[in-house]
Amino acid sequence: xxxxxxxxxxxxxxxxxxxxxxxxxxxxxxxxxxxxxxxxxxxxxxxxxxxxxxxxxxxxxxxxxxxxxxxxxxxxxxxxxxxxxxxxxxxxxxxxxxxxxxxxxxxxxxxxxxxxxxxxxxxxxxxxxxxxxxxxxxxxxxxxxxxxxxxxxxxxxxxxxxxxxxxxxxxxxxxxxxxxxxxxxxxxxxxxxxxxxxxxxxxxxxxxxxxxxxxxxxxxxxxxxxxxxxxxxxxxxxxxxxxxxxxxxxxxxxxxxxxxxxxxxxxxxxxxxxxxxxxxxxxxxxxxxxxxxxxxxxxx
Amino acid sequence: xxxxxxxxxxxxxxxxxxxxxxxxxxxxxxxxxxxxxxxxxxxxxxxxxxxxxxxxxxxxxxxxxxxxxxxxxxxxxxxxxxxxxxxxxxxxxxxxxxxxxxxxxxxxxxxxxxxxxxxxxxxxxxxxxxxxxxxxxxxxxxxxxxxxxxxxxxxxxxxxxxxxxxxxxxxxxxxxxxxxxxxxxxxxxxxxxxxxxxxxxxxxxxxxxxxxxxxxxxxxxxxxxxxxxxxxxxxxxxxxxxxxxxxxxxxxxxxxxxxxxxxxxxxxxxxxxxxxxxxxxxxxxxxxxxxxxxxxxxxxxxxxxxxxxxxxxxxxxxxxxxxxxxxxxxxxxxxxxxxxxxxxxxxxxxxxxxxxxxxxxxxxxxxxxxxxxxxxxxxxxxxxxxxxxxxxxxxxxxxxxxxxxxxxxx
Lengths: 300, 410
What we know:
By secondary structure, chain A is mainly alpha-helical.
């Protein structure tokens, strides 16, 4: 039973990390209908920035809490800046191009960013400092649920609630929903669509940065390549839940996290990624619109 | 021509990039030794680079906007590339083909085996590029797992030889066919999906094939790969390494010519036109009575077939294969070739493959920047010249007034 609960929690932790990344995919897709391939790379850059800042601060002897907050802040700021810049360079000029063009551009961007980090930093795995120390009150259940898992779950939940409030109740959230429903109409009622798209990229990238920092401190190492697999998996989660739908992305991520966790726990850990990809192929065959997505009808 | 305003704007953009690249470019930390390395020179490079690039970027954007503002009529004629115009004249065409063929045939006699071997690799990528060109360029299906079919071909030869001792010539068509079967099996479920989903599923498929090859040790010998694969034989004559490499080179030339011939015929066939039509508008296409599923499957499996054959030749050429030869990067390189050359254009793909494969070979000091450049190429080509270096010629119907009038009179 302990093993089951352990797997359950590790699945939930994975799922909540995927959710942070998947939200970026889903939001961007909802607004401009583009799969932002470079999103995984933004997550990776977030993790790298957090790593660099955290290491410098720990050398300077800052207290643990300050390190977490400042590293997280730096990761968010820089990832958001990258997201904003990428949109301006690689996607904005292609707003009216055929569907394939921005997709290829996104793949190019993803390759570029990966190799940029590889060349500017290193190709080795870097040990990520453990930012979250073990809590005393977690002692009795520490063998099942780690403190990091708890922090990840709580952070993700808080972030999700904030995001829901932002989208449901603020003016900018309303504008985002309007843009995703009908860009032309949104423009006609006076919404600055370019600004809304930029804001979407910024929010999505910030969430990815938080995810990047949390998972890096959970796994304990980072590399320039981590964004690729994480990106595909988060995308799988977004499709699973129904791309374009925000609660769908969260639900899909949790389902994916649990599937992976139980499959590796009870079947075999060699094929961890194969399970995720097979799940993706199966969903697309049987229910391409995802769990919560609406089937999209094409008007002629 | 460059105003003060422009310079000011570029200055701010360069400041922005300095900020953007600051943590990654300037700082390098070592968390074990607890040391921080500040590389201020990089900051200067970024500042200057961003300044110049932003000026170029804006200039190119303006040029592009000016171009699209031009009359459609004019762009369509001026866009027809010089090479294409030459190729429509039979006399020039024969000369060009003759010269290219002679150069290709003479190459191993003039250059060393090493050069020939590099050329063989480039030709292999020409075939792969032409194969992917059917899928991406003609049919407009973005396949990011193309390397999976390449792997299927390579492993078909390696394993059939390993377990049953089958020879190159028997496996060559088998490898292609097996890859095509995989293409159909993957295609049936996923081709119903819209373009962007297809990209991700094929990407996932590519990774699944690689992971299976890596983890299923008893079947594929796992990450260590299969070695001692024989080179192709020539009526059982024993060949030294040098002759064998030159032989493979000529084999490759013959194969490239065969591929070009087939792809060219396909492009102008009923099927080829159906692909292009499907790429442009699926709904209109179905309304015209084209079977969407069948047409897409044909593109997908034909593309896979070529990758499979290229895989067999690759295994025979290197005599050693491992799952590491078939990563996503490989798919990305092939895609870069097609995009750079010009989607749908045969000559474009050939030039693209030559540029992208030969250039890094000869500019060794740049080789670590290769993938960085490929990524940048994909973005820049899409933003500034989506049709590639050499745009494919669209089949157009020229309306001839006189002829029609005669027809009506008769």
